[in-house]
Amino acid sequence: MQKNTPPRSTIRLTRRGRIALVVTAAVVVGTAVAVPLLILGREKGDGRPATLVIPEGRRASQVYAAVDKALALPAGSTKKSLAKAALKLPGDAKGNPEGYLFPATYPIPEKTTPEKLLALMVDTANEKFNGAPVAAGAQRNAMNVYQAVTIASIVHAEAATRADMGKVARVVFNRLERGMPLQMDSTVNYALGRSTRRTTESDTRIDSPYNTYQRMGLPPTPIANPGEEAVRAAINPSPGDWLYFVTVRPGDTRFTADQAEHQRNVAEFNALRKKAGAAT
User: Fold this and answer.
1) Residue 278: its pLDDT value, please?
2) Residues 155, 172 contacting (CB under 8 angstroms)
3) What is the largest CA-CA distance in the chain?
4) How far does Cα 136 stand from its chain's mean position?
5) d(CA 6, CA 143)
6) What is the pLDDT of residues 80-115, one digit of tens each?
7) Which residue ranges of the chain lie beneath pLDDT 50?
8) Burial environment of residue 64 by CB neighbours within 10 A (0 to 12, 13 to 18, 19 or more)
9) Separation CA 250–CA 253 (nearest Å)
10) Could you tell me if 244 and 171 are in contact, meaning their C-beta atoms sit under 8 angstroms apart?
């Protein structure tokens, strides 16, 4: 992300961006799959869990639901507690903890509250993100820590494997630097409140600040809560000129800077998907 990249507030969809938009298929095939949050270490006696495990890449909504379950609270209780939680979030977050509910294992002592659990998650995120490696890495790439976490959340959702994270991060940077829309399925799915591997042309036309097919720059917030590996990829993207990628089949994610080559890869993906559908 070069220093001459326009700030998000001033970036608009350019004609070049519109031409680059490929509506025949997603630029990326999202790989995020909703996996239940895990509650571990049940105590003797009352049966309440002793710890709560938040896996990497879960959305805030999933974390709230897990806390409700762990504390045996009515659904929606944890989300309602945000107003009085006094979370130490960066100013850019505007009170939204998405991205800062750090994935880890958290103890659940007696008489704990949603506010205390959320505060512990945010404090852990601040400890991880505001240290020298991440802060310096963000500055080196001409962005702040919140933008790095936002990119990391996209990287986690889009990368088919951990080995691909650095490449996905580079695609994000290359597109931003060239004034191209990110065109990430994961951000559209976040706006729609779902996780899927297929994004339709209609989906890419939704009116949302998270629709990176229609809006330039990064989405207004992270789209999940990334772990340390995704954050490292966001501040240390792999070297390359890639602008497109698609996971044609498991273990076969293809990165390219050539749109025609990408179209061929997408066509192969669609043919394989059609073939698999016909076989079921």
Assistant:
1) 80
2) yes
3) 64
4) 21
5) 11
6) 999 999 999 999 999 999 999 999 999 999 899 999
7) 1-36, 44
8) buried
9) 8
10) yes
Half-sphere exposure of 88 (CA within 13 A, CB side): 14
| Half-sphere exposure for 1 (CA within 13 Å, toward CB) | 23
Q: Please provide the DSSP assignment of 159-192 as one string.
A: -SSGGGHHHHHHHHHHHHHTT-----HHHHHHHH
- Does residue 186 contact residue 28 with C-beta atoms inside 8 Å? yes
Q: What is the pTM of this model?
A: 0.85
pLDDT of residue 46: 62
Structure tokens at 128: 């991880």
Instruction: Specify whether the CB–CB gap between 181 and 20 falls below 8 A.
Output: yes
Report strand pairing: 244-249 vs 252-256: antiparallel
Report d(CA 262, CA 278) in Å as an integer.
24
pLDDT digits (tens, 9 = 90+) for 110-132: 899 999 999 999 999 999 999 98
Tokens 């270490």 — which residue?
41
> Which residues, including other chains, have CB under 8 Å from residue 30's CB and lie 6 or more apart?
157, 158, 184, 185, 186, 189, 195, 196, 197, 199
Tokens at 21, concatenated: 């938009």
Can you read off the two tokens belonging to residue 217? 């720059």
- In eight-state DSSP terms, residue 130 is S
Q: Are 77 and 68 in contact (CB under 8 A)?
A: yes
User: Residue type for 194, please?
Assistant: R
What is the token pair recorded at 146? 């919140």
> How far is 55 from 33, CA to CA, in rounded Å?
12
What the block records as the tokens of 59 is 């959305």
Indicate the helix (H) or strand (E) that contains 155.
helix 145-158
Which runs of E-coded beta strand occur in the chain?
38-42, 49-53, 105-107, 244-249, 252-256
**Amino acid 280: pLDDT:** 63
